[in-house]
Amino acid sequence: MGAEMAREFYAVEIGDVPQWCLDTPVPSEGGALEDPWMFVEGRPVIDPGPLKTTPFHVDVKRTFSVANADRTPIANEQVASVFRELAPDDVQLFPIEIEGTPERYYVVNATRRFKCIDEANCREVQIYPPDGAVPERVGEYRSISGLRIDTSKIEDARVLRPMGWELTLIVSEEIKKGIERVGNTGVFFNRVTGPRSTHSE
């Protein structure tokens, strides 16, 4: 069994646990980011400078969570160091201050994306149709359940976003295990490699 076959990858999902909900990051000096989605597009960004966020729902602090609708990954020092050690070429880490919290946190920006969605093995893939309500999105993914990726198309990446479905952050098994060792996360990991799942995961 080659090393290739053994590579397992996981989508980072919002965990069903009590946790704080962090708002979209903004510049520390005020105002808003020009592009609040910049951290979920799977590409390197220019250092935005000091960032801050506010919990809009205060609950249990977590070591790793995905903020708000745009699902920006925000990690504490220990989780950030997992990314820093295991995937230095796949991420940028930008310090972010969380209001009311002295500890240091980071926005984790995955800098690589690949056309790697294995449509045949996903449970269900819906594409925007040509005659649909949103003509500008024709041919794009509308929804994917039971996501599967083709690892032969992601080079040596350990952290990535799949092209066309960038809201999903995907990490390798080593990174998943490293984050689980830190513990107390606000996320869970959904396998996106291996045989198609027949039930909802």
Largest sheet report: 6 strands, mixed
**Shape assignment:** globular
Oligomer state of the chains in this structure: single chain
**Domain module tally:** 1
Uncertain residue segments: none
Structural class: mainly beta
Q: Give the strand content.
A: 25-35%
**Number of helices, counting only DSSP H or I runs of 4 residues or more:** 2
What is the mean predicted local confidence, pLDDT?
91
- Give the N-terminus to C-terminus distance in angstroms: 26 Å
Q: How do the strands line up in the largest sheet? A: 3-4-8-9-7-6
Give the total of beta strands. 15
Question: Over the alpha carbons, how many angstroms does the gyration radius reach?
Answer: 17 Å
- Name the helix and strand elements from N-terminus to C-terminus, one letter apiece: EEEEEEEHEEEEEEEHE
Share of residues in helices? under 10%
Concise description?
By secondary structure, this protein is mainly beta. Helix content is 10%, strand content 31%. The radius of gyration is 17 Å and the shape is globular.
Characterise this structure.
The chain is mainly beta and 201 residues long. The protein has one domain. 10% of the residues lie in helices and 31% in strands. It has two helices and 15 strands. The chain has helices at residues 77-86, 173-182; strands at residues 9-14, 21-22, 26-27, 51-53, 55-57, 64-67, 72-76, 91-98, 105-110, 113-114, 124-127, 141-145, 159-162, 169-172, 187-191. The protein has a six-stranded mixed beta sheet with strand order 3-4-8-9-7-6, covered by helices on one side. A five-stranded mixed beta sheet has the order 10-13-14-1-15. A two-stranded antiparallel ribbon has the order 2-5. Helix 1 (77-86) runs antiparallel to helix 2 (173-182). InterPro entries: Imm11.
